[in-house]
Specification:
The chain is built from five helices and ten strands; from the N terminus they run αββββββββααααββ. By secondary structure, the chain is of the alpha+beta class. A hairpin with a 3-residue loop joins strand 6 and strand 7 (98-103). The chain is globular, with a radius of gyration of 20 Å. The two termini are 25 Å apart. The mean pLDDT is 96.
Length: 267
């Protein structure tokens, strides 16, 4: 599933392409919205909350979309050929000179703009919220600490605690803290975890690469994520990967047993 910074950048890209324009085509290829036509509406703006995207239209209307594992918004010049099969398109928003196409999008809903917050009211503070305050940080830290026996890796993916962290940042935060992802939350400083999560997402919010080491060199951007062949970026030792979580929450989880002592599943 995309990280919060990926969704943030997708929202900004979508907004730059179509905000302030009048739709000449507003078509849905989605069972619940197949009869809706947005042509003639003005696009007022785009905002993101965690991993959710809201596109605002004139007439007090918002489109909510979620990328899930494989969704994407792509921008093309008017009349240009799409880079994905047409049967993957779920939304087509076109103006005179541009078309924004949502492929394989999930959880599509049209709601009154004033009611869109109810779709994300279950989320914790958004780590990329432009209005972030110390109170947001305190609230996220308190929510994280509320289940002290929970595995840190699982807690980091819980969007109800703080919104925006996906599997890559989960893995990298644990590597930076030098703890196993299976370490209980009680053994880390919740405030430090929240601050680190926000720092990493902010550092990568305006670029497609997700660099956590500070080194943009090829194959050098992450500490342990997807480094089973290269080894730990810190010590060069063997990086292991184990599954963490169950059912739909199950994720491959990389860690360095030398740099990240603590509990871990057996090989």
């Amino acid at each position: 599933m995309p990280e919060g910074d990926t969704v943030f950048l997708a929202g900004k890209t979508l907004g730059r392409a179509i905000a302030g324009k009048t739709l000449t085509r507003g078509e849905f290829r989605h069972p619940a919205l197949a009869t809706v036509d947005l042509a003639g509406r003005d696009v007022l703006g785009v905002r993101t909350v965690g991993k959710h995207i809201f596109t605002h239209f004139s007439g007090d209307l918002s489109l909510h979309s979620h990328l899930k594992m494989d969704g994407t918004w792509r921008i093309y010049a008017a009349g240009a050929k799409w880079g994905f099969p047409a049967h993957h398109a779920r939304v087509i928003l076109a103006a005179e000179d541009v078309q924004a196409v949502g492929f394989r999008l999930h959880d599509l809903k049209l709601v009154p703009t004033g009611e869109e917050d109810r779709l994300v009211e279950h989320l914790g503070p958004d780590l990329l919220d432009p209005q972030w305050t110390d109170e947001h940080a305190r609230r996220a830290a308190a929510s994280l600490a509320a289940e002290p026996g929970r595995e840190l890796g699982l807690a980091l993916l819980d969007q109800r605690i703080m919104a925006g962290i996906g599997n890559l940042y989960k893995v990298e935060i644990c590597a930076l803290l030098r703890v196993s992802p299976w370490t209980p939350v009680s053994e880390v400083d919740p405030a430090r975890v929240v601050a680190l999560g926000r720092k990493l997402l902010l550092a990568n919010a305006w670029r497609h690469e997700q660099i956590t080491t500070g080194d943009p060199g090829r194959g050098r951007g992450n500490w342990v994520y997807d480094r089973t062949r290269r080894g730990c970026f810190r010590c060069g030792g063997r990086v292991l990967v184990r599954n963490q979580g169950h059912d739909v929450q199950r994720r491959p989880t990389w860690f360095c047993p030398k740099c990240q002592p603590g509990p871990a599943p057996p090989e």
